[in-house]
Amino acid sequence: MRINLKMLSLLGFLTCVALLGGAYYFEYAMDMEPCPLCIMQRVATFMVAIGCLAGFFLAQRPLPLLIASVWTLLSSFFGVYLSYHHNWLQNLPVDQVPSCGPSLEYMLDAFPVMEIITVLLRGNGDCAEVSWNFAGLSMPGWLMVFFIGFAIASVYGVFTVWKARQMQQA
Questions:
Q1: What would the pLDDT profile of 154-168 be if each residue is shown by its tens digit?
Q2: What angle do CA 69, 39, 6 make, to 5 degrees?
Q3: Sign of the four-CA dihedral 148, 154, 35, 99
Q4: Which residues contact 105 (CB under 8 A, 6 or more apart)?
Q5: Predicted confidence (pLDDT) per residue in 64-93, tens digit
Q6: Dist CA 46 CA 28 (whole Å)
Q7: Would you call 134 helix, strand, or coil by DSSP?
Q8: Does this model's pTM top 0.85?
Q9: What are φ and ψ of residue 138, in 5° steps?
Q10: ∠ at Cα 12 (10, 13), nearest 5°?
Q11: 107-117 average pLDDT score
Q12: Is 136 exposed, middle or buried (0-12, 13-18, 19+ CB in 10 A)?
């Protein structure tokens, strides 16, 4: 059975939209303030969404589809890294949790961009708090599951397009 890459891309894009919608629901409807790593995971989800949307529109063009699949794969790896690090912080013993940092608004006013990005990627004590749990996984745990799924689908896309290109050249 051959999986249609155009529909797989659309499914990936819609999943990202649902994940981002859920994140904003938790933030605005349930008053759960996102930590720095949560914000970065939203960025990674958005990056995956862009790759999936490009894959949907470029499904009939092998080279652009390959580029979109590689972009989605790299974005997925970035998301896996962030969600793994976030889970690691959440599972640290209380005495080893890093201290909480300044708010994002303050950092934007006071620090250079590269330092802000470093702080966001590293996370802080706010990131160690588990404020939601479902079936034994926190939000970053579920995001890691989704990012791994996106990575697997992207590898499939890269392999399929690469194989098709090899057959065309032969």
A1: 999 889 888 877 777
A2: 20
A3: positive
A4: none
A5: 888 999 999 999 999 999 999 888 888 777
A6: 18
A7: strand
A8: no
A9: -80, 180
A10: 65
A11: 75
A12: exposed
